[in-house]
Amino acid sequence: MTQDWWREAVIYQVYVRSFADSNGDGVGDLPGIRSRLPYLADLGVDAVWITPFYASPMADGGYDVADYRAVDPSFGELEDARLLVEDAHAHGIRVIVDLVPNHTSDRHEWFRRAVAAGPGSPERARYHFREGRGDQPPNDWESVFGGPAWTRLPDGQWYLHLFAPEQPDLNWGRPEVREEFLDVLRFWLDLGVDGFRIDVAHGMVKADGLPDVGTPGHLKLLGTDALPFFDQDGVHEIYRDWRKVLDSYPGRRIGVAEAWTPSPERTARYLRADELHQAFNFHYLTAGWDAAELKRVIDDSLAAMAPVGAPTTWVLSNHDVQRHVTRYGGVARARAAALLMLALPGSAYVYQGEELGLPEVLDLPEDVLQDPVWERSGHTDRGRDGCRVPIPWTPEGPSFGFGDGGSWLPQPAGWASLSVRAQQGDPDSVLELYRRALRARREHPDLGAGSEVEWLDAPEDVLSFRRNGFTCVVNLGPAVVRLPRDGEVLLSSSGVATEDADVLVPPDTTVWLSRP
User: What Pfam family does this protein match (any one) (predicted)?
Assistant: First the structure.
């Protein structure tokens, strides 16, 4: 890895509650992650991104933070965080922690004081408190989790929460809010973390006057249209201040934006030289299994990042979206999609369990659902729990090796055959495919940051591109495709055949080829 390690890193996302449980309470924790670091090192990842483990009442799985400088007891202690960072570094793995600056928990001391202080107080100025329009909220904004984005207090004022009512939005126009988070950054950087994934990075600044959107169904506009509460230009002033803090520490500490924007060009604004280092590529994540659509998104993504000199990121799944095995329609496509993603220039994100080929769990009993989306939608949207089911480590045990006391969400019985132990050493398994791919990606000079993409002529349902001595071919169509063999087969997501000077690529298959 170069000094700019983040430009080509493969970053593994750990959803803390569902990765590994060290104490048998059914919930994953920091010591559990620490115990599985050898697995991550053997898999071949460069860094791990850990979802929030801060003190929290868990109204939204830890994304409602009550204390940004403390570890929630369900996950361990502050010393566990320090030891995890230390051990990860010993295994050659960098650590990125989640930071939630758009909102706090309603149990945060600041919000408790704001409620107690009453209307017009300096404490309420740290959040967005407003008078209503009669008995109606101050504007027509809707919560991402369903329902209005405002809750009324007994004293008559309303407060803004773009997510759950237990997650009041901070007012980033206040200098004490900005100073508080600069101090939080320094706290965790001093502990040794290598960077931050910034939750709702596009949301901290709201349009002046908090104007109405004017149309219902805001969530459908997310990532496609301009909204008065997301992707406002003022957020960039915040990140310029944060970049100064990051650059003041050795070892290239980074900021990663979770920024839903209307276009790749808007995303690139977060990655200018004096702002953040990476941003999630949601335009790629939401693309369908279609050659023309994927090619367009790849081209647009690379073109948008070029002017700001930032790497493009690629991601297929995370803790907020349906797992791509299910979304794409099967393991064969998921395997092919993984090799396509890992062949592209830039940095890639792997969500825990995707290297096992885990599908979305669609049939969780209603009485175990914990995502606030379930309640906020009036039980019409099952939410995100289906992609958060704890991962299986062994074919046996009360939770397939996740822990000794079961798991907070039930695992399907069929996951025994998808466990880490069941797949280890099986050359046809998804796990071994990921291991081989990550090893090849690290070793091949034209992968990773490597060289640029050169598209090659190919049939309508096929993507084919060259990166100097490396070629990637993806057959997204229903029939076997015969193409000129541009080198020797390095890796394929399913069986391929070579015949004289040609390579035969089955449907839903990606093949890597390499020339001397």
Answer: Alpha-amylase
Which sign, positive or negative, has the C-alpha torsion 285, 239, 166, 66? positive
How many CA atoms lie less than 13 Å away from 85 in the CB half-sphere? Answer: 15
4 DSSP 8-state letter: S
Tell me the C-alpha distance between 141 and 75, whole Å. 34
| Per-residue tokens: 294 | 């994927």
The one-letter code for the residue type at 247 is: D
Residue 125 C-alpha from the chain's centroid: 31
Please choose, from the candidates 354, 353, 352, the residue with its C-alpha nearest in 3D space to the C-alpha of residue 335: 354
pTM here? 0.95
Beta-carbon count within 10 A of 229 CB? 25
CB atoms under 10 Å from CB of 254, counted, come to: 22
- Alpha-helix residue ranges (DSSP H) falling in 76-174: 78-90, 109-117
Lowest-confidence pick of 2-6, 144-148, 176-180, 191-195: 2-6
Q: Tell me which residues are annotated as active site.
A: 199, 258
Give yes or no for residue 340 having a pLDDT over 50.
yes
pLDDT digits (tens, 9 = 90+) for 318-339: 999 999 999 999 999 999 999 9
- Tokens of residue 313, six digits: 């990121």
Task: Give the full edge-to-edge strand order of the sheet including 497-499.
Answer: 481-484, 502-505, 497-499
DSSP per-residue string spanning 177-223: HHHHHHHHHHHHHHHT--EEEETTTT-S---TT-----SS-GGGGTT
Cβ atoms of 298 and 314 within 8 Å: the answer is: no
Q: Which amino acid is at 263?
A: S
Q: What is the pLDDT, as a whole number, of residue 391?
A: 98
Give the Cα separation of 158 and 138 in Å (integer): 7
Range 238-253 average pLDDT? 96
Residue with tokens 């949601």: 282
- pLDDT (tens digit, 9 = 90+) per residue, 424-457? 999 999 999 999 999 999 999 999 987 899 999 9
Q: With contact defined as beta carbons under 8 Å apart, do 508 and 330 qualify? A: yes
Tell me: pLDDT of 221 over 80: no
CA dist 167 and 100 (Å) reads 10
Sign of CA dihedral 366, 369, 375, 381: negative
Tokens of 170: 């901070």
366: left (phi over 0), alpha (psi -120 to 50) or beta: alpha
CA-to-CA distance for 215 and 251, rounded, in angstroms?
46
Alpha-carbon gap, residue 481 to 139, rounded angstroms: 55
Q: Which residues of 217-282 form beta strands (DSSP E)?
A: 254-257, 278-279
pLDDT exceeds cutoff 50 at 1:
no
Separation between Cα atoms, residue 135 and residue 137, nearest integer Å: 7
| Per-residue tokens: 59 | 């109204």
Q: Tens of pLDDT along 404-433?
A: 999 999 999 999 999 999 999 999 999 999
Q: What share of the chain is helix, strand, coil (3-state, %, to 5)?
A: 30, 20, 50
